[in-house]
Structures are given as structure tokens and as C-alpha cells.
DNA sequence: CGGTATCCATGTTGATACTG
DNA sequence: CAGTATCAACATGGATACCG
């Protein structure tokens, strides 16, 4: 179990933290990619396969988004020495930590839809 | 106390709910405006005053964002019959429900910054 | 005061073609 | 297969001027 950390943050730091979170959760594709990977944990998820299954994404965007997810330690990239080469992507343990956050967004969003209808 | 509601949602509905949440939390200004209003509950928060205090926002954007917040029932707009007319904005009770959600974004963001540094 | 209208700079995304 | 390069389209936001 993790040690609970007492945090103090200024208003500006909080806004920066929110920006950081939204940079990952707020874009058009990152969450879709991560949700796909998370629902296909036991499979080999190659670049092509992800592109087929994440509806509408271009190679350019998929490449860019996967690179950013990797830099943020949310996703691993593994080059398989097949012929031709394939590359495998998977969520990291740490990456799974985004899903509880998205749950709160889902809950608020569903409730909000009820509220304003 | 509210009745807990058991929700079932498809993947697409969940993504739509997240989009709804992010439309409000994810933009550049809405959260700053709401945080400002929430920290100045006992004051008259006129258009001009908000524009002065929310750093860098233009009248165009402030007008647009406030209108969207009002439509989403997060903020009230009250025209005061002073001369000249002033308009007063305030968080609604319901609007306060965004702050627990932002807290989870702050927590994840702060933790993430530690993680990747 | 509380906005709206207009025009413009910028960044983000898509389409297509191409490479190792 | 797994990308990159290039160009075009579009959305977002800012600056300025103006109105009731």
C-alpha cells in the first residue's frame, strides 16, 4: 500500500495539475486508445490492430498519441523481431490509474445529462 | 440525501458522458471562472469584475463561457436594474458538484507530475 | 456596463503519399 | 508492418471596434 501523501498546492499549481490531467484525458484519442488496450489485455495489440479498432484514427495521430502515452509511462511499446517487424502496445500498471479518474468523469457526465435534459 | 442510482452504460455512452464532462472541465476558461466565483461567493461578481480577475480572458470568451455555464445550470445570471445596468454571476448549488470532480483531476495530475519527473 | 461583430493568427487534425 | 512527410481543412481563441 502506498503512503498517503499530504499535498499542499496553490491555486496555480492546482490548475497546472488539472491541465496535466486533461492533456491525457482531454484529447480526442488517448482515452479511446487506452480503453481499447485495457479491454484487450491478453492480446497482441499491434499498431495496425489498434488503428483498425479505434474508429477513425489516422496513422499520423495514432503514432503521435501512442508516443505521448509512452512518454507519460502509461503505455509500453515493444518491438517484436518478427518478419516483418511488428510493434506491440500495452497499458502499464501505472497506466491503469487513469481509469478511476475517468469513472468520476463518466459518473458526473451521466448525472449531468439527466440534470439538463 | 439522493437516492443512489444504479447505472448501466455502454462504452459509447461512457465516452459520450466523458465528453460531456470535459466540455465543461476541459476548456481553457470555464473552470477558472467557476473557481473564481466559488472563491468570491459573498461578493457581487459582475461581468467586468470577473474579466478583471480571470487573467487574460477577452470579453468575447467570457461572454461565451458564461452563457454555456448558464445553459448547463452551473451558474446563474442576474441582471441588476442599476444605472447603468450591471449583471451578476454566481455558482448554483448544482454547480458546486464540479469541484469534487476537479479534485480527482488535481490529485491525479499532482501524482503524475511526481511520477514522470 | 455588458456585451456583439468582425477579422485574423494559430494550433490541431485529416488525407494522401511515401519509406525502411 | 509501422510508421513519416507534406499539405489542406477546420476549429479555437485573440484583438479590435462598435452598440444599447
TrEMBL record, chains A, B:
Molecular function GO terms recorded: DNA binding
Keywords associated with the record: DNA-binding, Transcription, Transcription regulation
Pfam families assigned: HxlR (PF01638)
InterPro entries: HTH_HxlR, WH-like_DNA-bd_sf, WH_DNA-bd_sf
Domain HTH hxlR-type: 11-117
Gene3D superfamilies per the UniProt record, alphabetical: Winged helix-like DNA-binding domain superfamily/Winged helix DNA-binding domain (1.10.10.10)
Protein name as it appears in the record: HxlR family transcriptional regulator
